[in-house]
Sequence to fold (464 residues):
Amino acid sequence: MTRAAAISRAEQQFDSGAFRRILERRIAIPTESQNPDRAPVLAQYLSDEMQPAFEAMGFECRTLTQARAKAPFLFAQRIEDQALPTVFGYGHGDVIRGLEPEWHEGLSPWALTERDGLWYGRGIADNKGQHAINIQAMANVLAERGRLGFNSKYLIEMGEETGSPGLRGLCETNRELFSADLLIASDGPRLSAERPTLFLGSRGSVNFDLTIDARAGGHHSGNWGGLISNPGIQLAHAIASIVSPTGQIRIPEWVPAELPPAVRRALADCEVDGGTDGPVVEPAWGEPGLSPAERVFGWCSFEVLAFKTGNPDTPVNAIPPRAWARCQLRFVVGIDAERILPALRRHLDRQGFPMVQIAATREEMFRATRIDPEDPWVQWAVASIASTTGKKPALLPNLGGSLPNDIFTDLLGLRTVWVPHSYPGCSQHAPNEHLPPAILREGLSMMTGLYWDLGAGDTPHRAV
Fold:
């Protein structure tokens, strides 16, 4: 009954193929939350896979619903002693559409397939493989110790890929039920495939449309060129006023006053690496004076996701009446989310573009979150993972992408420690989603060690 024995159990479980068989079953369930026809399948994932897995570990399970959510939630808890630390776990069983015709020949999104040393299947990276690791790691601790040594609460949702509708309302209604000391969960990629990683929050994200409606219809460019405004040209200049030719944001309210020293220290040894299939980092793009890691994890970025004017498929010799762009701001802690679009309105008016209309999209805004990289719970988790892997983990103050993490930090008041079991080149929302099995194996081992340490008594539970 030792930590080493629990980790050995995890390694043997992976090497024997037992963990792979768990993943095979779960990947075979086509839980596409964007497809209304899959609603019964979303509930099936909870009833046929998640609930039996938790109940086998002595968890009490209940299905929860929320008016805005199109699918149920599963809440599971095992309370061993109220005096022990309580950890809240989270995962999502829904996946992006399978896109079956676009996968390589011989691969299917709904079958775990090994090819060229990689495991393919929809959800293996996002998020079935990740929460499968964490749940099985707890089962390993139970099998070795006979108890967890801590209290566990776990929430599985089935709508994350459609913006987590209802998750906020569910947590508001169940604050007392969901109370815990910290959240330990897994999503997103490691900094690189080889390096274990922790991140402590996520950048916020707001999508919005910029539109110019100049007139009712198009007009011949020979007869009217030089006489009437071109919305495409105007919108291009409006966008150019927001960001420099090298991607530096020009709206003061959209960037933090400074990069906090604790964030800078945490990112000092973090190198952004997308792997052999990833793009090459461009040193001259973005905020000058910052390292690549600081630009993506510590700063804000503005993107134009789509731009349309006229008819791109069949251009005609006419001045278009309308131009439209879908834009996005990723932002960090320190940016007032409520001031983002009002600041844009003031900026465009000052720059002479009152004709540009601004409209937030229907997608939910993700708010920026970040807990202190020097928090005792964070340092405890870093030490545990280093002990298991023999590697120095990368510590990211926040993910470059966005998650509904503010629900856990701001609403439930939890410290949040995310331990991802994926890598930047996993194709998670694309065809051919995959992972190297070495990441899964190491993840299963280090999470078994992390949960073992959580129940060993040497935690910051009493100190904070």
Summary: The chain has a mean pLDDT of 96. Residues 3-202+367-454 form a domain with the Aminopeptidase fold (CATH 3.40.630.10). The chain is about 30% helix and 20% strand.
